[in-house]
Amino acid sequence: MEHAAPSGDFVMSMDAMTVRGWRDHFESLIQRIGPCFGRCDLRQRAAAYVRGLLGSAPRKNGWQLAEHLGDTTPHAVQRLLDRASWDAERVRDELMRYA
């Protein structure tokens, strides 16, 4: 089935209140998944990683995300994704409840 393109009258309006609302929702979500990460530094790294994915970095690989986050190397991001201990299934379940 083919969908029609939106008409020229379709304009999305972004205002500061909308953006602040997104930030509040994001912080709420981070609080919900925080307990899935056993250590505070992992919780902070996970939140930064998601912010990086949602951010303006043109590419989302380890080096670009690390640079976007202010890190000199991608080691912290790689550690979170590869070697750190956190409950991925619990994060998934919490995200599904949130959605």
Task: Give a verbal description of the structure.
- It is flat, with a radius of gyration of 17 Å.
- The two termini are 27 Å apart.
- It has 99 residues and is mostly helical.
- It is built from five helices and no strands.
- The protein has a domain at 34-98.
- The mean pLDDT is 83.
- It has helices spanning 16-33, 40-54, 62-68, 75-82, 88-98.
Question: Summary?
Answer:
This protein is mainly α and 99 residues long. It has helices spanning 16-33, 40-54, 62-68, 75-82, 88-98.
Helix content: 55-70%
Strand content: under 5%
Number of strands: 0
Structural class: mainly alpha
The total of helices stands at 5
What is the H-and-E element order?
A: HHHHH
Rg from alpha-carbon coordinates: 17 Å
Q: Which stretches of 5+ consecutive residues score pLDDT under 50?
A: none
Report the biggest beta sheet as strand number plus sense, adding barrel if it closes: none
Distance between the termini: 27 Å
Mean pLDDT: 83
Question: Per the principal axes of the C-alpha atoms, what is the gross shape?
Answer: flat
